[in-house]
Specification:
The chain has 19 helices and no strands. It is mainly α.
Length: 421
C-alpha cells in the first residue's frame, strides 16, 4: 500500500525522522521580560482554559509559570531559556494540521495535570514525580498522525510495522514514547536538554518513567487504570477509617477530654457552616465520619492523608500514569463552553479518519462512520462520559477531594449532552 493510500501527508513522506533539525532552526535565544505577567499567572491558575485562546508563545510562558510553581528550574538546575527551547522543540513535534491531536491538546493535558496536582495530587508525589508528570503530559502525543491505532495497523503504516508488539496494538503510544525519549536523551549542548544536570542513573530513570506514563495513555489500558485509581482511593479511605477507629478507642478512655474537644468542634462548626471547605476545622465531626456518605468520606481523606500514603516509587509511578490518563480524557470536566469546543475538535478528527477509511474500503471503528448527525455525536459523547471518563474521575476525586468541582462539572456536562438527543 502506498504512503498516500495510507493517509500519510507529503510532509511526513519527506521527513527522515529527524526529530530536531527543523525545530532547532526556529529557536529564539530571547525570552520576553513579561513571562511572569500577572494576567498569564492568573489565567494559568484557572481550571477551564481553552489553549486555542492563546498563541504558542503565551502557552510557552504559562507552561514556564507551571514549572516555576514547583520550582523545577532550581530543583533540577535548568536554565529557563533551555526550558522554553524545549517547549518549542516539542511544539514542532506535533502535527498542526490535526484537528485534535496537536500541541494545543498536549498543552491542555499538561495544564490539567497541573490542576490535578495543585488541587491535592501533589501531596503524594515528590518534585521528580511532578517533573515526569508534566513532561509525559506535554509529550504524550508527539508525532500523532491523527489516526487511531487500529487505522495504523489496518493500513500497515510505518509506525505499525516499527512499533508493533505481540498481543498489543498501542503502536502510536510506543511511537510517542520513542520520540519523547529521543528528545530527552539528546546531547547536552543542543540548547534544550532538560536533563543535563542529572546523573546517568537519574536520566535513565526519568526517561523510563515518562515512557511508562505515556504508554498508559493507550485506551486499551483504561480498565486497568480505572482499577488502579479505585485501589488508590480504597487504600486512602481504608487508612482514614482505621485512623478514626483508633482515635475512637483512645477517646473512650478519656471521656472528659473528648467532650471538651467535641464542644470546640461544635462551636467551630457553627461558625463555619457557611464557609468554604478550606475554612472548616481540620478534624471532621463524628457525623461526617460515616462511611455511608462518599462525599463526607472524601472530605475525611482530604483532611488526614499524608504523603506517606505512597512511600514507594512504584506506587507513585502508577498514580502518575492514572493522573496523566485522567487528564488526557478529562476535557469534559471543564466548563461546558470549553468542553463543547473539544467535542467539535475530536469528532472532526474522527470524521476525517472515517472519510479516509471509506476511500480505502476499510472500517476499523464502525462508530466513526455514524457521526453525521449532531444527535449521534452527543449521544456518543454522553456514553463516553458515562462509561469511560466518569468512573476514573470518581475514583480520582475520592483520592483528591478538592477536585470535586471538576467531577460535578463532568456530571453537569453529561446531563447537558443527554438533553440534546
Amino acid at each position: 500500500m502506498s504512503a498516500a493510500a495510507a493517509g500519510v501527508t507529503p510532509s511526513q513522506r519527506k521527513r527522515k525522522y529527524d526529530y530536531f533539525t527543523r525545530a532547532a532552526k526556529n529557536r529564539s535565544a530571547d525570552i520576553e521580560d513579561d513571562l511572569t505577567d500577572a494576567q498569564l499567572v492568573t489565567t494559568v491558575m484557572n481550571y477551564s482554559i481553552d489553549p486555542y485562546d492563546f498563541d504558542d508563545e503565551q502557552l510557552f510562558k504559562m507552561a514556564l509559570i507551571i514549572f516555576r510553581y514547583y520550582d523545577l528550574p532550581n530543583e533540577f538546575d535548568i536554565d529557563e531559556t533551555t526550558i522554553v527551547h524545549f517547549f518549542r522543540i516539542v511544539r514542532e513535534m506535533y502535527e498542526s494540521e490535526n484537528y485534535f491531536h496537536n500541541f494545543k491538546h498536549a498543552w491542555g493535558v499538561m495544564h490539567m495535570c497541573f490542576q490535578i496536582l495543585k488541587n491535592g495530587g501533589e501531596r503524594f508525589l515528590d518534585r521528580f514525580d511532578v517533573f515526569t508528570v508534566l513532561i509525559a503530559a506535554l509529550c504524550h502525543d508527539v508525532r500523532h498522525p491523527g489516526n487511531s491505532n487500529a487505522y495504523e495497523v489496518a493500513t500497515e503504516s510505518y509506525v505499525s510495522k516499527k512499533f508493533s508488539k505481540v498481543n498489543e496494538v498501542c503502536v502510536l503510544e510506543r511511537y510517542h514514547a520513542h520520540v519523547t525519549a529521543s528528545i530527552l536523551l539528546t546531547e547536552d549542548d543542543v540548547g534544550y536538554n532538560l536533563l543535563s544536570s542529572m546523573n546517568q542513573a537519574d536520566r535513565e530513570r526519568f526517561v523510563q518513567q515518562v515512557d511508562f506514563i505515556i504508554l498508559g495513555t493507550d485506551m486499551a489500558k483504561h480498565v486497568i487504570l480505572v482499577n488502579e485509581a479505585r485501589d488508590f482511593a480504597s487504600r486512602a479511605t481504608s487508612e482514614i477509617l482505621q485512623c478514626n477507629s483508633t482515635s475512637s478507642n483512645v477517646s473512650a478512655n478519656s471521656q472528659a477530654s473528648s467532650a471538651q474537644r467535641s464542644s470546640v468542634r461544635l462551636q467551630r462548626g457553627r461558625k463555619s457552616q457557611n464557609s468554604s471547605r478550606d475554612e472548616q476545622d481540620d478534624e471532621p465531626s463524628q457525623e461526617s465520619k460515616s462511611p455511608r456518605s462518599p462525599r463526607n468520606l472524601s472530605i475525611m481523606v482530604s483532611r488526614h492523608v499524608s504523603t506517606q500514603l505512597l512511600p514507594d516509587a512504584d506506587a507513585r509511578l502508577h498514580l502518575k500514569r492514572v493522573i496523566v490518563h485522567s487528564a488526557d480524557i478529562g476535557a469534559q470536566t471543564q466548563s461546558i463552553e470549553v468542553a463543547l469546543k473539544w467535542v467539535d475538535r475530536v469528532y472532526s478528527e474522527y470524521r476525517d479518519q472515517a472519510e479516509r477509511e471509506r476511500n480505502l474500503g476499510i472500517m476499523t471503528s464502525p462508530f466513526l462512520h455514524d457521526l453525521k448527525e449532531d444527535t449521534k455525536v452527543f449521544s456518543t459523547q454522553y456514553s463516553f462520559i458515562n462509561d469511560v471518563v466518569e468512573p476514573i474521575w470518581v475514583a480520582l476525586t475520592t483520592l483528591i477531594p478538592d477536585l470535586r468541582f471538576a467531577l460535578d462539572q463532568l456530571v453537569a456536562n453529561k446531563t447537558y449532552y443527554q438533553g440534546l438527543f
